[in-house]
Specification:
single chain; mainly alpha; Growth Hormone, Chain: A; 11 helices; 4 strands; MFS_trans_sf; transmembrane helix; POT_fam; transmembrane transporter activity
Length: 360
């Protein structure tokens, strides 16, 4: 008990037997501090000399040992055992970390670009509750002579799209792709997310084309200052909601699975929570874009793209902007996914060796 208390407050552990204390953020900080403190230390060519417990279990409670990877080599300095470390005796986690602890941080760093690519997607996703509703408010909501459907309620078609696409993905797409690729899940998680990013581009294109038609009718019939509905059924918005739902099934669900699988064992809760922050940041980015667009397009007394009277605006330009950002985001994502290295535990490595596949 005394050792556990001291370990919790000091961050120390016995040299070969004591598990390190502290939260995931503490372990990340320890690797960073140890790497900086040893910035002049040379990392050995033979990575088997890097410090790791000799036990089968890792030094981190609830985590399997992670196999060394060659990315972010500077962080490897944290697990180089120097003569000073040997002379001190009990290893201080702020000076000497295990390979698994270093690989934990590497896994998080590799996840961050994938996480960042979800922010633009979330910005597109947030348009359902903002620009889609503003656009829908100008369209004809009547169903028959007496019933009107509120613009905000069209999000039901997004929900229906998700409900429809989940079984299509699981029961049709996965078996077909599995028969081609031989992978249990059909698509890799990175491929699944990439497909969702592409679908989100078409969602913005659908919204933009509808806006072009809306503005054409306004110009044709001189409805710029009309308070009546534009003679276009609100149900022409269904494709853009439907596409957003399909994109979510691929990207959001794929992202949650990806973060859970690729996160270090002892950091899965933190990484799953991290993946959900893209929603909030996407909303912030959407607000920022609207603010910037409004500031730039209203100079010199102009009404701008998104005025109070949308009939005199150019909401389609805003949709094109989001489509362009989504294309750029997807291209960057392709580079990121090509660079990404999947984590590999010691157990995975042993399985590969047993199957005659010792290389990554």
């Amino acid at each position: 008990m005394a050792i556990a208390v001291v370990s919790f407050f000091s961050g120390t552990r016995l040299y070969r037997n004591q598990k390190p204390g502290g939260s995931p953020l503490t372990r990340i900080a320890q690797v960073l501090v140890a790497s900086v403190r040893k910035w002049q230390v040379q990392v050995p060519e033979d990575k088997s000399f890097l410090y790791e417990l000799t036990d089968k279990e890792s030094a981190i409670e609830g985590s399997r040992k992670l196999k060394h990877s060659n990315q972010f080599k500077f962080l490897d300095k944290a697990c180089v055992e120097t003569q000073d470390d040997k002379d001190v005796g009990p290893a201080n986690a702020w000076r000497l970390c295990t390979v698994t602890q270093v690989e934990e941080l590497k896994s998080i760093v590799r996840l961050l670009p994938i996480w960042a690519s979800g922010i633009v997607f979330s910005t597109v996703y947030s348009q359902m509750s903002t620009m889609f509703v503003l656009q829908g408010n100008t369209l004809n909501p009547h169903i028959g002579p007496h019933f009107k459907i509120p613009a905000a309620s069209l999000s039901i078609f997004y929900t229906l799209s998700v409900i429809m696409w989940v079984p299509i993905y699981d029961r049709i797409l996965v078996p077909v792709v599995r028969s081609i690729t031989g992978r249990e899940r059909g698509f890799t998680q990175l491929t699944r997310m990439g497909i969702g990013l592409v679908i989100s581009i078409f969602a913005m294109l659908a919204a933009g084309f509808l806006e072009i038609v809306r503005l054409h009718i306004i110009h044709r019939d001189n409805l710029y200052d009309s308070t009546d509905y534009i003679p276009i059924s609100i149900f022409w918005q269904i494709p853009q909601y439907f596409l957003i739902g399909a994109a979510e099934v691929f990207t959001f669900i794929g992202q949650l699975e990806f973060f859970y699988d690729q996160a270090p064992d002892a950091m899965r809760s933190m990484c799953s929570a991290l993946s959900l922050t893209t929603n909030a940041l996407g909303n912030y980015l959407s607000t920022l874009l609207v603010t910037i667009v409004t500031h730039i397009t209203t100079k010199n007394g102009k009404l701008g793209w998104i005025p109070d009277n949308l009939n005199r605006g150019h909401l389609d330009y805003f949709y094109w902007l989001l489509a362009i950002l989504s294309v750029i985001n997807f291209l960057v994502y392709l580079l990121i996914s090509n660079w990404y290295t999947y984590k590999k535990t010691e157990d995975d490595f042993e399985d590969d060796m047993g199957n005659g596949a010792g290389k990554d």
